[in-house]
Specification:
The protein has 297 residues and is α/β, with parallel strands linked by helices. It contains nine helices and 13 strands. Strand 6 (135-140), helix 6 and strand 7 form a beta-alpha-beta unit. Helix 6 (142-151) packs across helix 7 (178-188).
């Protein structure tokens, strides 16, 4: 601690801060906040510590009043505010997006789970983790729920645990059959959000976005295109089809941020695979079915 304080005191002095000068410290509850305070004290500067939860107006008032020579702040602050669990593997794109990056970017606690939905030690493994770690939202694949349903069709293991903090369940990775979705809704009593995306897209193409507006759950369908995705249904000649007809589900270019712009060391293969069949469109290689038509109608 002493060494860190000495280094920071030297950094302040290098900025021209000396005895009697004011320093405003606007920091979250991190060790650097205490180091900044002690660094000021070491060189005789006056520190004004502003509560990190204050908004811009409150901070501006204190800066105007104190006339500090330096303002010490942080690039971000993280409130403890919830636990998100993606019961996938980091080897899949959902592991990248839903285990590592997105929860931490959003300020959530993320759960890394090494185990299976059944047999580790029983079909209540998921519910034990949710209960013990007070998980608020979970993502997994429909296959996991089919395995749980097969081993525990009555949901007896679910009732062994406190799931009062658990709010939504997200499913993706494959089509969620209506029977599995209905079983999960009945047993858990929370919204079950089926959504569709690909490794190449990096994030959801179609989903029921809980943070936008309430939409009805359509069994077997990911509901609606996510903002940023312009989905169309085309026939074999590239003509757009009206609602109610089966065709190729494509994305009108340009792709939104976050989508893959190419394949590693294979630009031409990327163009041939995804962009050549329907010029001006990204081919998802998905055939529009009756449930997908409901999404686009």
């Amino acid at each position: 601690m002493r060494d860190e304080v000495v280094k920071f005191a030297g950094a302040l002095a290098a900025q021209g801060v000396g005895r009697g000068d004011r320093v405003v410290i606007y920091m979250p509850m991190v060790p650097e906040a205490a180091i900044a305070m002690l660094g000021c004290a070491r060189i005789g500067a006056i520190h004004s510590v502003v509560f990190g939860g204050f908004a811009a107006n409150e901070l501006a008032g204190r800066i105007e009043d104190a006339r500090p020579k330096v303002v010490v702040s942080a690039s971000c602050g993280i409130e403890p505010g919830e636990v998100y669990w993606a019961a996938s593997d980091v080897g899949w794109v959902v592991g990248h997006s839903y285990i590592v990056y997105a929860p931490l970017l959003h300020g959530c606690t993320t759960v890394l789970y090494e185990g299976k939905p059944v047999g580790t030690p029983d079909p209540g493994a998921f519910w034990r983790v949710i209960s013990e770690h007070r998980v608020s939202a979970m993502f997994t694949a429909p296959t996991a729920f089919r395995a749980i349903r097969q081993q525990d069709p009555e949901g007896a293991h679910i009732r062994r645990y406190d799931l009062s903090r658990f709010r939504p369940l997200f499913l993706a990775g494959e089509r969620c059959d209506p029977e599995t979705l209905g079983w999960a809704q009945k047993q858990l009593g929370v919204p079950v959000i089926d959504h569709w995306w690909q490794t190449e897209t990096g994030w959801a193409i179609a989903a029921k976005c809980l943070g936008i507006e309430p939409l009805p759950v359509i069994a077997g369908s990911p509901t609606r295109p996510v903002p940023g995705w312009d989905l169309r249904v085309l026939d074999g000649d590239g003509r757009e089809l009206p609602a109610g007809q089966t065709g190729a589900l494509v994305v009108k270019l340009p792709m939104p941020p976050g989508a893959s712009p190419t394949l590693w060391n294979a630009d031409e293969r990327f163009r041939q695979t995804y962009l050549s069949t329907f010029p001006g469109y990204y081919e998802t290689a998905t055939l529009d079915t009756s449930t997908m038509r409901a999404m686009c109608s």
